[in-house]
Amino acid sequence: MAPSTRSAILRSIIGKGNGELETQRLCAACAEITGMSGAGIMLMSGDVPRGEVCATDEVSHLIEELQYTLGEGPCVDAYNLDVPVLEPDLAHPGVSRWMAFTPPAVDAGVRAIFGFPLQIGAVRLGALDLYSDRPGALTDDQHANGLTVASIAAQAILVMQAGALGGTVAEQLEISADFQTVVHQASGMVSAQLEVGVAQGLIRLRAHAFGSGRPLPQVARAVVARELRFTPSGTEAVA
Q1: Where are the domains of the chain?
Q2: Do 113 and 91 meet the contact criterion of CB atoms below 8 Å apart?
Q3: Which CATH class name applies to 3-176?
Q4: pTM for this structure?
Q5: Pick from 107, 55, 65: which is nearest to 216 by CA?
Q6: 125 burial via Cβ count (<10 Å: 0-12, 13-18, 19+)
Q7: 211 class by beta-carbon count within 10 Å (0-12 exposed, 13-18 middle, 19+ buried)
Q8: Is residue 132 classed exposed, middle or buried when 0-12, 13-18 and 19+ CB atoms within 10 A define those classes?
Q9: pLDDT band at residue 175, thresholds of 50, 70 and 90?
Q10: Percent of the chain having pLDDT more than 90?
């Protein structure tokens, strides 16, 4: 993809005159350019997912929600490994991975899924998910375009983030995105209860949500409401 084409796409994503990031246009462009069924973008900070920036459809939203809740999937791996993570046949993978993520994703109609890290220089922002409702590997052009749109997405997010205070997410990006603030608040509370890092607190929240069959935000709300407390012994007690 020529630099002029990349610039044109980036300009179409940034709102004219006010610099607002059109996140839905961002995801739609990523899916369209790569010829995929859908796309989603997840922001991450350290090893902790911040949440979904955008998703093109309900399946893409589910993909991001599953990864956020379970802490596994192509976005998580692409971010942590800093390389594209490609699964051309999710229902019959050559190597089994994402044991909790795969069944519900396949049930939703995902047959191939590809994660591309969002990075500019040494700055890592998150990852882009592309999915197809048919199995099959990316063509060389699709792979190249995936790298390109991931770079464009990273640039667009940095433009939006430029005016935000350190350690915070830009207001317009926060409004456009689906960030589970209550989960981050609960992770901090669990980390204090267990005297561990926030990332470990989030892991305990996820494990409890998965084991109890409850949505992660529901468990988080119970913690914030002090209806659920985590103890170092590994048990959760109703306060």
Answers
A1: 3-176, 181-237
A2: no
A3: alpha beta
A4: 0.74
A5: 65
A6: buried
A7: exposed
A8: buried
A9: very low
A10: 35
